[in-house]
Structure formats: structure tokens, C-alpha cells
Amino acid sequence: MNRRDLLTSLAFAIGASAAEPDASESLYIPKAHRVEDRALLHDFMDDYPFVDLVTAAPEIRITHIPVLLDRGVAPYGAIYGHVSKNNPQHDAFDGRQRAVIIFRGPNSYISPSWYARPEAVPTWNFAVAHASGTLNAVTDKRALRAFLAKLIDTFEKRYATASSYDFAKLPDNYVEGMLGGIVGFEMKIDALEGKFKLGQERSETDKSGILAHLRTAKQDPSIAELTASYYARLAKPQ
User: Is the separation of the CB atoms in 93 and 34 below 8 Å?
Assistant: First the structure.
């Protein structure tokens, strides 16, 4: 299967919910890696709110955005976000198009040398949650403004704890102009899938080895390191 066919299948699939593991899925999940604990998945989604929004009509589109989860909407919660008005993906916010929103956690290479018996092949551990549903546009300006205020407040408190920024203090004409440049959406989750491939099916000795080596293994560059190196590259004469 080529990449385009794979992404099309992903975007159109009606994923299996935590309560219905035998339904069709948006990704392959071995039994040992399936997560059915809805509270755990919701916690994970809140912990990793920068997502991949995948749609397939009128063509395949993927946008990378922060979102907010509302756990109180039946059956599995609702997700709110927005994209640029210049982004053609907002054409899919029509109440009919299916979408998959992918929440990605950390990932890491796992060496066979970390196991009690190294007769194995390397693998890669990771965790994801896939939320599927139908996209609806948020067109009411008051609702969109309220969403933006909550989105900003949530992440200011989480990531910029010393910040004095206050979205509510921005001039109305400025905010109205910004609202005119985005399109909001809401997606009621009708299928929720969790895949945590973290070596949980291995022996206790192997799990201890995985944890011990992950704590000391070389890590990929942080966003701070990546940003600094990219700025430095841009500053070099071409």
C-alpha cells in the first residue's frame, strides 16, 4: 500500500472505541498494546495537546495544531480547534466529513542490548491516541472568541507561568481582525483508540532494563536545541 492509500484509509476509517475493540480501526493495535481506559486516554490527550488533524476530502490534508478536549461530551468527549482561513482544510468542516485527530506522546528507539536476553531485534516504543469523528465549523464569533480565550489561558498557565499576557485586554478591533483570519471547528468523538507500545508485554527484568536505559539514553534534540540550531543556520551567509 502506498503512502497516499494509507493516509486515505486512516482518515476515512471509523476507529474502534475503547468500549468496542472489535470495530474497524484507524490503526493496527496488537492486543498487548491496546489501551481501553478512557480516563487514561483523556489524561494522555490533555498531556499532549499538539495534534495532527487528518482529513481526506476533497483531498488528503494534515494540519498540526493545538486543541482542547472537553471530556463532558458523550460518548467520548469533544475536541475544539482552529485553522487558518487560508488553509483549504477548513472545507472539511461541513458536518459530513470524517476526521482522525492524532495525539502523539514521546517515542524512543529500544535496543535489544537492554533486554535480559539480547536475541531480539530493535524496536521503537511510542504512545498515541486516535480520536475520530465528524467535523463541524464554529462560525459564531462569540463562541470562537471564547474558545480562543480558553485555549490561550490554558497554555499560558501551563507553559508560560510567569507571563503577564492577558488575551482579554487586547483591543476589540484587533481581536475581531484575528477572528476573521481563522476557522474554528468542533468534533464530537465517536471513536477513541489508544495504542501504547511501551514494552509492557515483556518480562519484569526486560521492563526494568528498558526503564534504566531510557533514563540515561541519548535523547533527541529538545525544541530549544532545535530552535537554536535553526536560528544559527539561518544566520549563516548563504
Answer: no
